[in-house]
Amino acid sequence: MITCGIDVGGRSTKVIIIDDTIAVVGRGLKLTGGKPALAAEAALDEALLAAGLKRENIDVITTTGYGRRLVTGHDNDVTAVTCHATGAYVNFPRTRNVIDIGALRTSAIRLDRQGKVHRFRLNDRCSAGIGRFLERVAESLEIPLEEMGQLALFSNNPQPIPSVCSVLGETEILNHITHGDKPADIIRGVCEALAESVVSLVKQVWVPEGEITLTGGVAKNAGMVRALETALGARINIHHDAEFMGAYGAAIIAREALDMVPSGKVSVS
């Protein structure tokens, strides 16, 4: 039994293929760009190649993300909130709080003890696009995005960023650059400001005694993880496939759908 999850996100499209034991056998990742359907096909081909499988070997494909209904040949589609919650809970069964931070959206999700979504909140427009905002900061500082998080950990004097609005925040960053502030201090200030906005969202659905799991591409940013843990006063679970967690959750949901209809393909939406 082979199932597949495809997460069509604002920046990148991720694919996960799992086997009977729900172990990952193939991954694929492509930038989404302006053609989500083509990005999904390319990422799926990459995952199939890694798994040594063909398209016809997949029993069910579940899609998620903003472009989930644009993918051709999928069997069903599920919201990103449900998929990230499912992926987080399967990997960390004590999780009661899930924070999904991607390029364009942040979600705070509260789970019940069975791992089902109990409540959730999405970011407002002013704090939208944390991942994309971090990309623009990297461009402004002329620093590779993948190095930003580690650099923030070397800061001893974080510079305050009063606003996480994309326009006002970038203006503040340019001011710091003009004043000669160190890039590490600017980045740490950005991470702390963004973390505060995320925590204000999380507190609306918070389960204080429950574990916290971070999903989405921003989980790879060590500076953001440190800032979030400090702001929350708690340790955060980070899976090595955190960026793929929506796709993994979709693949798990595809498996569950197949279990309910063992005789053939699932075609519900």
Q: Counting H and I runs of at least 4 residues, what is the number of helices?
A: 8
Quickly give the CATH architecture of the largest domain. 2-Layer Sandwich
The total number of structural domains is 2
CATH superfamily of the largest domain: ATPase, nucleotide binding domain
The CATH topology of the largest domain corresponds to: Nucleotidyltransferase, domain 5
Count of DSSP E strands?
A: 10
Distance between the termini: 21 Å
**Unreliable segments of 5+ consecutive residues:** 262-269
Amount of beta strand: 15-25%
Determine and state the CATH class of the largest domain: Alpha Beta
Query: Any idea what the radius of gyration is?
Result: 19 Å
Work out the helicity level. 40-55%
* Topology as a string of helices (H) and strands (E): EEEHEEHEEEHHHHEHEH
Mean pLDDT: 91
- How would you classify the helix and strand content by structural class? alpha/beta
Strand line-up across the major sheet: 3-2-1-4-5
The dominant shape is globular
How would you sum up the major sheet? 5 strands, mixed
Walk me through this protein's architecture.
With 269 residues, this protein is an alpha/beta fold. It folds into two domains: 1-92 and 240-269, 2-Layer Sandwich (Nucleotidyltransferase, domain 5); 94-238, ATPase, nucleotide binding domain (Nucleotidyltransferase, domain 5, 2-Layer Sandwich). The protein has eight helices and ten strands. It has helices spanning 36-51, 80-91, 130-141, 145-152, 166-178, 183-202, 222-232, 245-260; strands at residues 3-8, 12-18, 24-31, 60-65, 76-77, 95-101, 106-111, 117-122, 211-215, 236-238. The strands form two sheets. Strands 3-2-1-4-5 form a five-stranded mixed β-sheet. A five-stranded mixed β-sheet has the order 8-7-6-9-10, sandwiched between helices. Helix 7 links the parallel strand 9 (211-215) and strand 10 (236-238). Helix 3 runs parallel beside helix 5 (166-178) and helix 3 runs antiparallel to helix 6 (183-202). It is globular, with a radius of gyration of 19 Å. Mean pLDDT is 91; it is low at 262-269.
